Fold:
Amino acid sequence: MTATTRREFVESFLRFDSVTGNERAVQEWFRERLTDRGFETYTWENDPELLADHGSFPDDPTEIDATERPNVAGVATFGDPEAGPTVVLNGHCDVVPVERASWSSDPFEPTWDAAGETLTARGAADMKSGLSACLFAVEELREQAGDTVDGRVVVESVVDEEAGGSGAATAALSNPYPFERDCAIVAEPTDLRPVTATEGSVMVRLGLQGRSAHAATRWRGESVLPQFERVRAAFRELEQERAERVTHPLYERFETPWPVVAGTVEAGSWASSVPAELTAEFRLGVAPGETVTEVEAAFRDRLEILAAADDWSIEPPTLERFSVQFEPAVTPQDAAVVETLQAAVAAADAGPVEPTGATYGADSRHYVEAGIPTVLFGPGTIEAAHFPDEHVAWADVETATTVLADTLTRLLECDCISRSR
Structure:
């Protein structure tokens, strides 16, 4: 595939408005592209019954959306596929919603800068460029190695990563392929640096109750807003305490390694009334080595201490878990897939080779939990993801392709993956 063809492929990929829940059209397109390139394709649907038994997902299967959301993959075989490892290159096709007024161009019409070096569109960084690089890398492997190596490579496009990863979780829990998987690389935007640890998160909903009153006599009411500020301050204090107390060597570069964010706040019902009810949704960071339940308990305990104060108002606050939870995940740095990726990064002079941790969650956790060593590596930066004018440097896409192709070659040549089959 020429450089021009690669650019056209990514441009076509980015034109799909594949906001989470609306992935069918782009997945059908991606499957056709895999078929056109000689991959053996597989398709699977999310399994609500299976996911409901998993601690990260809602207990009620009806709360898990699996309709018209296919996951697709293409398998390329080399030499004797049974004599070598099976490597999964994973990416997600879904993107987060856009606030069009904040963009300088149409989010779903790829735009290049004047020099043709930077590509702007929703999903450019997170992570259609990375998933495309996975496909490009397999095509490079075919051209360079052919049947001189043994094994399989799976290029996997999954849905729902942004909302919890039901596509990857279904694949991890119920293998959609007639063969085992030995390791995986997830092409998240990592600044071309290996990431072996991902943070977890727990989503909790805070409820506060005050007393309404006419705005003209506001002193007769009890506003929930000061209550919320007290809770937010207490959570911020605990966030700082945890940053000092809970440590991990891969997270020393972060000033706030386990961030706490109130992502949504809804209060009041009328501009001329004292707000008597408030609901806020928090995302609480979970460090590698911790569990979602432990962290939730720590914040719940802090809230109970606050609620026990004599000057608390009408009713004590409530805190309930909701939505999908992200458990943290760590792959040992001496895993063969990590060390092989490091060697390829060094050979390409792509950037730092030492693994680091990420303060976000990723689909890698599902594969790690299934016993599949998994590392994150891809073009772009997380600082551009979910932002207006999301972008990626095209040189990074080309470098990621080179590194991934070299990693695959090394893995299939040396057969250095320890396999149980």
Notes: The domain at 200-321 is CATH 3.30.70.360 (Alpha-Beta Plaits).
